[in-house]
Amino acid sequence: MTAASAIDRVLVIKLGALGDFLLALGPMQAIRRDHPSARLTLLTRAPYLDLAQASGLFDEIWVDSAPKLNPLAWLALRRKLRGGRFRRVYDLQTSDRSAGYFRLLGGAGGPEWCGKVPGCSHRHVYDAPSPLHTVERQREQLAIAGIDDVPLSDLGFLDAPIADRLPARPFVLLIPGASPGRPAKRWPADRFGDLAARLDAQGLGTAVAGTAGEGDLAHAIQAAAPEALDLTGATSLPELAAFARAARLVIGNDTGPTHLAALAGAPTLALFSADSDPGRTGPRGPHTRALQRDDLADLDVEAVLAETGDWIARDPRLGDGAT
Description:
Number of helices: 12
Number of strands: 12
Radius of gyration: 21 Å
Structural class: alpha/beta
């Protein structure tokens, strides 16, 4: 056996959306702890390349090209996957696409495979969609492969200096955006504006986070609360994590940045419509709550303030009685 072939090579597959990727960092961190000397490769989507690199978990990161109907692209991907000489694959995506990659790697005759695809060596069998939250489902999956300690994702590696950009007074971070293709996941921007005005009257500032394309949401909020700080399109993920940690609390829709805030340790209230299930996909963190209405247009500001009143009065991270 050559030195090159003696290296333990392990592949992790995680595509999905930002919130899914962030929740999967805990399993990825557990995989790295279980394979401390392995050459660990990640197959992911291009938007998560910087995040994966910042995690420090992987020796190599491959970008999934999603070849679809292009036979030459599928052949190139098969060649790349088989050239990786992986001993084991952790499929944290568990989708039809990743099941196709199982077949590209030789199916049951290929490397050990931890996932749900029939015929794999470490198969996790569950009803689809799973009734479990993603976190619990992936814990069950990794336990089948002998990895029992899978804590929540540690986002300590995401941080940045922001002291000179913080509001002058304690503030609440608002996340009014969500996937453009799923408008039902958005609490109306005028409600966020009313909330910001109410918080201002209580002596709290507000900051609005989101993508550059969500600047109109920040402007709508500023129409009701002119002093709200517009951060849309102006924060990297490390900076967003730092703003979340600096905030008294975070209030946001069911979207990736809200997941990031919760996992970063910020007190986080996530707003849900019937479009998604907080029991299966809600943010997780040490101080996290969810508030749901079938139609978010039916969620009033008073209900949000009632849910977060104790957090507004004190920061739960500082213990009972803290102000």
